[in-house]
Amino acid sequence: MKEVMMYCVSCCRMLPIAQSHSLYKTGFYKHNVPAGVCKECQSALLVHRK
Ligand SMILES: [Zn+2]
What we know:
This protein is 22% helix and 50% strand. Strands 2-1-4-3 form a 4-stranded mixed beta sheet. It has one helix at 39-49, and strands at 5-8, 13-16, 20-30, 33-38. It is globular and about 35 Å long. The protein is built from 1 helix and 4 strands; from the N terminus they run E-E-E-E-H. By secondary structure, it is of the alpha+beta class. Strand 1 (5-8) and strand 2 form a beta hairpin. The site of zinc ion has 7 residues, from helix 1.
């Protein structure tokens, strides 16, 4: 089973989809790579937002 990747728009990295917090259903970085926000960035966002 090949690894599915996602692209984090916040840190601009390609990450395994297991690391994603949320994915944009309408946004794709590449043909088969969904764009979203990774868990790391999501927790950073929460800290900043407070
Ligand atoms: Zn990120």
